[in-house]
Amino acid sequence: MRAWNVLEANTKRNLAILFFTGLLFWISITLLLPTLPAYVQDVGGTTQQVGLVMGSFAIGLLCSRTWLGRVADRRSRKIVILIGLTVAAIAPICYSIVQSIGGLAAIRAFHGISIASFTIGYSALVVDFAPRQQRGELIGYMNLAVPTGMSIGPALGGFLQAYSARWQWDFLAEGTGYEVIFWTSSLCGITGFVLASRLQEAAGNKEILEKEPINSSDRNFWELSQNPALVIPATILLLVGLVFGTMVAFLPLFVRELDIAFNVGLFYTTVAIASFSVRLFAGKASDRYGRGLFISGSLICYIISMTLLANAETAPTLLLAALAEGAGAGILIPLTLALISDRSYANERGKVFALCMSGFDLGIALAGPVLGALAFSLGYRGLFSLAACLALTALVIFVTQSSKNIRQSFNFALGKVRDAYAIDC
């Protein structure tokens, strides 16, 4: 861990606190992944309404990212982290109180603010502390909180739901197990808030900004949104968001339709294990060989995963799809963050992360209601086939548009040339 060894003691302390805060946050979020679609269906929701509720999560993301990005740049990364954890603590309790479809969609949208806020603050703070030459490596290590949390959360959620009735926690579970999951999710958010309150990022962040080169700029959102260096990563994330949103919204229902003995939580745990494994080396390798080669590989993993889901009949096929999806996500998200960090100045990274990750948010928002409307005619297999096509489209765009011309883009996507848009800061 060369990147970790070069850091100062106070920086290591802050990053350690940040990592465990991230772990608690992602456990809180992913506890609900395998059970919330079934919960919506059990309170009377149709397949399209399940997609609507799950997709509403991204509405909160989209509506809050711009403002939160400005707060992160102008005020403090810590503030937006605490906002995210506060929402993560409140929203799960609200699910157990409101059981109408409209109410659940509104709460889900509110819950989306948590990821918008937390990921902006977390990512910006990690990059602030990361040495330029080891940026990909350190981002990769710090983002291990995501797959680790995702490996624990879904499995814990399924375990709590399965055994709550046996334990006769009727004062919480009412025989379903959902309330136990909601309260556990909330408790993780509260614990994360207490831990994050110990972060001391102001001095370190000030030091980073004082080192900003004199040719740095303060571009607004409109200027950033017209910059091809950022538009292409945002477009890739939009398409991958559609793929990811399709999987999250409809995988539990697809498994239920298959009528096989398979715990959906195991799928997400497998995703997390694969994601964890590739992050151990991908970030460091991208510092040496470039981001493009690994981002191209991650998109191929998404294509394979969705193709396997579209043809799945047995549990082993589902697990293979989970491995491919986990490898894709484990490479794409941290290395895209590293890529857009390379292409931006420190004093605008909050806005840049907000802009680019909004593409991912929009994809998730559209996947549930839009593709859910196609579920009746296409079926779940058809939806996953469509998702594979979207991943293929993302790969074609990246290979042809990721640099200043098609030839440079092709070579960058294959790891043959450096990033032409990179800023040395």
Produce a short descriptive summary.
The protein has 425 residues and is an all-alpha fold. It contains 18 helices and no strands. The relative contact order is 0.16.
- Please write the CATH class name: Mainly Alpha
> Looking at the structure, what is the overall shape?
globular
CATH topology description:
Growth Hormone, Chain: A
- How widely separated are the two ends? 22 Å
Which helices and strands appear, and what pairs or packs with what?
Blueprint: H1 2-5, H2 9-30, H3 36-42, H4 47-74, H5 77-97, H6 101-129, H7 135-142, H8 145-167, H9 170-173, H10 178-196, H11 202-210, H12 221-225, H13 228-258, H14 264-289, H15 291-310, H16 315-342, H17 349-401, H18 406-413
Description:
The chain has 425 residues and is mainly α. The protein has a single domain (2-413), classed as MFS general substrate transporter like domains (Growth Hormone, Chain: A), CATH 1.20.1250. Helix content is 81%, strand content 0%. The chain is built from 18 helices and no strands. The protein has helices spanning 2-5, 9-30, 36-42, 47-74, 77-97, 101-129, 135-142, 145-167, 170-173, 178-196, 202-210, 221-225, 228-258, 264-289, 291-310, 315-342, 349-401, 406-413. Helix 7 runs antiparallel to helix 14 (264-289) and helix 13 (228-258) packs across helix 17 (349-401). 58% of the residues are buried.
